Amino acid sequence: MLVEMGQSHLFHHWSQPGSDDDQDKRGFFDQVNKLDTSYPGGLASYIQNARRLLADSKEGKNPFHGFTPSIPSGEILTFGDENFVNFEEAGVKEVRNDAFVLVAGGLGERLGYNGIKLALPSETTTGTCFLQHYIESILALQEASCRLAQGQCEAQIPLIIMTSDDTNAPTLDLLESNAYFGMKPNQVKLLKQEKVACLDDNDARLAVDPVNKYRIQTKPHGHGDVHSLLYSSGLLKTLKDAGLKWVLFFQDTNGLLFKAIPSALGVSCTKEYHVNSLAVPRKAKKAIGGITKLTHADGRTMVINVEYNQLDPLLRATGHPEGDVNSETGYSPFPGNINQLILNLGPYIEELTRTQGAIPEFVNPKYKDSSKTSFKSSTRLECMMQDYPKSLSPSARVGFTVMDAWLAYAPVKNNPEDAAKVPKGNPYHSATSGEMFIYRANSLILKKAGVKVADPVTATFNGQQVEVWPRITWKPKWAMTFAEVRHKVSGNCSISQTSTMVINGRTVFVEDVSLDGALILNAVEDAEVKVVGPVHNQGWVLEQVDHKDTSIPEEIRIRGFHFNKVEQLELNYNEPGKFSNSS
Which residues form a coiled coil (predicted)? Predict the structure, then answer.
C-alpha cells in the first residue's frame, strides 16, 4: 500500500534483509498499522486528502470561495433576567440526559507549567484544580437535576476525557490519586488520541523521523479527532442505549464555563438545536473567530466558526465594503466562538455514521519561499472540533447561545511573558487573568443577587494590569444557577474589596453578613448553616511574586501573586443538624 501510494522512499535507507528485523522493521509496520487504523478510511485516504489539500494550499485557494456570509440566528442571553433564569432551570432539568466530553490533550508547557493543564489550580484561594472543579460541577448538576426529576432518579452523568500520549497517564494518575474527585470510576472514560503522519512536500511524501529511520514522524491531528474517537470507540451508541440525548464538549482550562452550561443546555432543549455553539459578545475585528452563516452560490448553507482574519476580508469581498463592524449594540453581529458545543445525540450519530467520524481538515505548511515548492519543516493535516457543522445538511438546526464574557469565558492559554506582550485592550488569557476573572464573575453574581460588593481596584501582576475584586469562591454544590444564589443570600449583605470568602457546603445561607476580612465556611453534607452578622479581621493579603523566582512553585509563579493568610474566621460544621454562627 505504501509503495502504491508513492511512499517507497520510506524504505530506501533500510538495511539488508535479515538485519534490524525484530525491533526496527517490525516496529515500523506496527506504527504504520496504528496510523492506518486510527484514521477514517486508513492511511491511503490520509495521503489522498493531503495531496488535495496541499494542492489547494499551493494554489492559494480560498476555502470560502463562492460563499456569502450573513448573520446567523441564535439566542442572546442577559444574565439574571427572567428569560435567563427560565433557561437555567430547563437546562438543569435536562442535564441528567447529557454526557460531557472534555478535550484534554495538552500539557501546560505553553503556560510555563510542567504538568498537565487539568492539574493546574483554577484559582489559588482554595487550590482547586481544573479537573476537580469540572467533576464537582458535573456532580452538582447531576444532583440538582435529580432533585427536579419526578420520581426515582439515579442518573450518573458520564464524563469522557480525550487525552493524548502526553496526558493519558498523568490524567489517570490525577483521577486515581484523588478518588476521581467524588465521581464513580465507571462514570469516567478516557479516550486516547493518536497522532498523524507528517508530510515532507506537496506530493504528500511521509516524513521519516529525524531520530529513527525506521519511524514515520508524527504530530497531533487536532481536537477534531474527538468526533472520530467517539464514533470508532462505540461510545456514542452506548450513550444512546442508556437513553441520553445530548453531548456537551468543553476544553481544559476555562474556569467559568460551568456558569454558562445550565442556560445554554436550556436553550438547546427548548429550541431543539442539533448544534448549539456557546459564544460571547465580540468586538469587530478582534482576534476571536466569529460564528457566521455561509450560503454558497449552489445553495449549500452552513453555520460555522470563521476565523477573524478570514471573516473581515470575506465580508469586504461580498458587498460589505467596511467589513466586520460593530452594530448599534457596540458589538459585531457575528458572536465570538469559545469552542464549547452542545450536540443533539441522535442527529450527531446519524451524521458521524455517514462520514465515518471524519471531520473536514486543513493544512498549514510553512513554505520556504513564494514558489511554494518546499517546506521549512514537515507539516500535517489538522482538524478542529468546532468544524463538525461544516458537513451538515441545510436542514440541520444549528444555532448559538451568547452570554456575557465575564460569566462564561476565562481561558488560560498564555505564559506570563506572552501575556505581558498582549496589546492593550486585548485579553491576556493567562493564569493571572483566568483567576481574577473567576473572582470578578462571583462578585458580579452576588451583586446581582443584592449583595453590596465593593468595586475592584487595578493592580499589575507579571506585567498584566488586571481588576482585583474580592476573592469570592464557592463549591459548585452551593449554587450552580442564579436562582440558587438568590435563594441562599438574603438581607443586607456587604463585602469589602480586600475580603476573601470561601463557601464549601451545600446548605449554607448568608444573611445580613458584613464581611471585611477572610471568611472560610466548611459544612458537611447534612449540616444546614445560617451565617449572619459582621465579620471583621485582617484577612488574606494579596502579595506580588516574581514569575522568575524558581523557589516559588510554578502554579503560583505563573500568576504573579500569592496569598499571605494573616487572619481569618474559619467556621467548620462537621456534624449533621441546623446551625447558626450567632448562636
Answer: none
